[in-house]
User: Which sequence fits this backbone?
């Protein structure tokens, strides 16, 4: 059976990766996460360039392609190129025109600034075309149905989580930050009521403490909502709803702009819905 018979399109590939995730080696999982987080780059770059960006040897990408049932990288790349047909093509053109932020000289403040600005632009272009409005609406529905939102976010995602608590509180939605102070994350989750929700925010390299919060919440039967980077994230199978946000990197640092835009969109939309509900009382 040929690769097209096994995986016909990008959505089929994503589904196959989710199904086979536990059977992939650590290196192949690294490639899978990179490919799902950067599908446009996969479509327009060479194997060697992608290996550099994904921080793996080129043969690893070839091995990944064959593991997924393709004859080689060229056949796998066809799936990503076909994904760009139609309305997605302008993004690829815009991306190709951008300076490569991964090669920015981090010792030059001006180039660092330009690199972060371009990383944010690239991420927002990708985000605008990848967020499914129905998924966003369902996420907001789930938040609207909760009494209290308990937010778990740490390390690089901490600023997003702290802002989410502030924003939710500012619109009248009760919100608390699971800050793990004194290593009390389990006790903080235990304080959540049956009508509450746990909002976890984590991206590659998935903070273990945040993943554990999602696991504890799921074991307690609480509603779990996740903002993460792709379908292979460890919090996805633990969540009732998930939104995917790819955060572009500059060196070892991530741009927080796309995740912040998603959080602000959620907060503003939820606030409007709550205001309309109050007007009807």
Assistant:
């Amino acid at each position: 059976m040929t690769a097209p018979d096994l995986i016909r399109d990008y959505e089929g590939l994503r589904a196959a990766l989710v199904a086979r995730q536990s059977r992939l080696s650590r290196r192949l999982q690294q490639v899978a996460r990179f490919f799902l987080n950067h599908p446009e780059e996969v479509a327009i770059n060479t194997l060697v360039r992608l290996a550099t960006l994904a921080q793996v040897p080129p043969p690893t990408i070839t091995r990944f392609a064959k593991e997924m049932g393709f004859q080689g990288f060229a056949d796998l790349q066809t799936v990503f190129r076909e994904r760009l047909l139609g309305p997605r093509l302008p993004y690829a053109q815009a991306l190709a025109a951008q300076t490569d932020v991964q090669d920015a000289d981090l010792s030059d403040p001006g180039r660092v600034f330009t690199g972060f600005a371009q990383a944010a632009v690239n991420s927002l272009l990708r985000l605008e075309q990848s967020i499914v409005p129905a998924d966003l609406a369902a996420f907001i529905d789930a938040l609207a149905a909760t009494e209290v939102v308990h937010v778990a976010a740490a390390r690089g995602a901490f600023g997003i989580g702290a802002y989410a608590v502030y924003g939710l509180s500012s619109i009248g939605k009760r919100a608390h930050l699971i800050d793990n102070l004194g290593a009390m994350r389990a006790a903080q989750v235990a304080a959540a009521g049956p009508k509450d929700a746990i909002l976890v925010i984590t991206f590659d390299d998935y903070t273990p403490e945040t993943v554990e919060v999602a696991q504890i919440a799921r074991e307690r039967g609480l509603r779990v909502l996740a903002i993460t980077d792709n379908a292979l994230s460890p919090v996805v199978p633990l969540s009732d709803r998930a939104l995917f946000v790819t955060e572009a990197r500059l060196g070892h640092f991530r741009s927080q702009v796309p995740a912040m835009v998603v959080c602000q969109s959620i907060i503003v939309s939820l606030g409007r819905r709550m205001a309309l509900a109050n007007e009807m009382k």
